Amino acid sequence: MAGPILVVDDDLFFRQLASDMLSRHGHRVVSVENGTLALEEAARTPFDLVITDVVMPGVDGFALTARLRERDPDQEVILVSHRTDVKGSEMALRSGAADCLAKPVEEADLVLAVDRALERAALRRERTQLRDENIEFARFHNLHQRCLELISQSDLEWLQERIISELSAVCDAQSAALWVLDDRGDLVLRAYRGLLDKQFLAEKMSPEGPLAGRLRDAQPWFARDERSAVLYVPLMVSGEIVGLAQLSDPLAGDFRAEHSRDARVLADFAAVGVKNGRRMMALQRLGLRDRETAAYNLSYFTDYASKEIYKARRYGRTFSLLTFSIDNLPLVRVRQGAADAKKAVRGIIRALSKIIRDSDVIAKASDQEFYLLLPETDFFGAMMFVRRAVAAVREEPEVQDVESRLPLALVGGASTFPKDGEDFDELVHRCRRRMDERRASLQRRLMLDGLPFWDEVDLLLGTPNSPRLPVDERAEPSRRGKVADVLFDELQAEIARELTRDPGTRGLLYVGGPEIRADLPIAAGLESAPPDLSSRIYLLGRRVDLESHPALTPVFLEGDERVSRHEFILWLSESAAYALIQRRGRGATWGFHTSDTAVVDGLISKLQAEYDLQPY
């Protein structure tokens, strides 16, 4: 339906005459008396046609035509005037008027000029509509193609990168980040790009709490941070949260409603793609498992590790590689038969499978060697896992059955990217070196694994008449004998300085002695340390005058004569392993100290069991 026609003339008679003529032919007419009112009316209502007198006070017909066409270059205008020379004049042509009529205007001439003008306006509307529809069709076709790509690939790593790339493109965003739901129910940062600084992006977010309401709505929402507009886009499938995208730094300075609409369409397909990718990965894993143990084969593991290395390099992350070996498996096979050897391997894989996360991968490298990959795990976490893994294996019924006839020589080693290497071979090499160190360790040579804490302390300290400790060049040094009286205090002070220099280092420190006092060097040395040290520090002994310290945890052992007769420091961290145990006598201090990681770890584990201390 055609829009209204605006008639502009300071002559009331002509306004009324023109309105009557046009109304008889079915047109809607609005009339005003001057150019200023016409401009105000045109600002409120779009008119398909404006009929204006040329000579008017204030804004004349030529000026009005020019002003109207500044707003809309396609505005149809018919000029009317008492002057016969207006038609075809230079000013009329330059103003862009569609036609010029001389007063008095014949009804037939006016209706003919109006019909021509309205026909041209209708054709322009149709052309504009077709153009807009074509543009919209092309845009939706492009969006459809992007969506199809997101569900056509099963590679999760590729998909995560592509999701933020496509969302950025359809929303004209220069920056984007993507969090994907992990096996523990947390949204974990998986990809980011653009102007974002990773240190300001949360590594993990809970879908509960403040986000819960927004995610349940399953609709994108707008926000604003200190520097940019932000658009959050949830990825949902059948009401289940899969991920959350953050888009920021829009090119136009702000996001528009169509950005939110397109982002939601793309996010729906992206969520399906992520879910399908997970299912495909699960199917691939099923087809790449060893029949006997259900562990993955080495080919799949190395491919998975290469992707993890790429992610770690791209996003500055860390992961750990672990190797386990049953050193005496050939002996088990010879003495007890192939059935027991297979049972031992199955039991070890089953024990490890119970304690790993869904994102961790275990593979069978050979009959007696296994690899584990632990994403987002630092070296200290890997060391703690090795301890847990060995303990879990010893508790597995199949392993216990085999060990009732012949103990298994299980040894594990760990390495961490990029601390120990930046490619798979380097990491495996480092793991094997640490396995060799454990094989040569005093822990294995003295068969200390089965001893309680204080029995091991007595064995390691020995007496002046005890035989010398065995030495192996592959192992870290261990010594027993007389030690300086000041060593215990100096070592505490040095550890306190190290923890203050690097408060982010994860580790465990146990300081034990007859009394827990405020003047202990470790307590005094950590007074200036931040309260949120990553290392956990415990003081064991009889309580005297220690006030609460945010970095220290006292463990009061009243009346334990074994503690009162000894002093010890056990320190295990990402970069250090050290143990000092000493017994003060009348003439000198007798002690044992070592940097053998296996011995230090074993002492800490047994100390935790002896006094029911919480593991890290």
Structural features, described:
The structure is a single chain. By secondary structure, the protein is an alpha/beta fold. α11 runs antiparallel to α13 and α16 (453-461) packs across α20 (597-610). The chain folds into four domains: 5-125, Rossmann fold; 156-287, Beta-Lactamase; 303-440, Alpha-Beta Plaits; 453-611, Endonuclease, Chain A (2-Layer Sandwich), CATH 3.30.870. The longest helix is centred in the N-terminal third of the chain and has 46 residues, at 107-152. Helices cover 45% and strands 23% of the residues. β17, α18 (521-525) and β18 (536-543) form a beta-alpha-beta unit. The radius of gyration is 41 Å and the shape is elongated. The relative contact order is 0.05.
Task: Sum up the overall morphology in one term.
Answer: elongated
Spatial sequence of strands, sheet with the most strands: 16-22-21-20-17-18-19
Number of helices: 20
Helicity range of the residues?
A: 40-55%
The biggest beta sheet, please?
Answer: 7 strands, mixed
Coarse structural class: alpha/beta
Q: Judging by the overall fold, what is the CATH architecture of the largest domain?
A: 2-Layer Sandwich
Give the uncertain stretches in residue-range form.
Answer: none
Task: Please state the average pLDDT score.
Answer: 85
**Count of β-strands:** 22
Number of domains: 4
- Our measurement of the CA-to-CA distance between the termini, rounded to an integer number of angstroms, reads 77 Å
Q: Within the CATH hierarchy, at the fold level, what is the topology of the largest domain? A: Endonuclease, Chain A
- Radius of gyration, taken over Cα atoms and rounded to an integer in Å: 41 Å
* Beta-strand proportion: 15-25%
CATH class of the largest domain: Alpha Beta
InterPro entries: Bact_response_regulator, CheY-like_superfamily, GAF-like_dom_sf, GGDEF_dom, Nucleotide_cyclase, Rev_trsase/Diguanyl_cyclase, Sig_transdc_resp-reg_receiver
Pfam family, one: Response_reg
Organism: Myxococcus llanfairpwllgwyngyllgogerychwyrndrobwllllantysiliogogogochensis
Modified residues (4-aspartylphosphate): 53
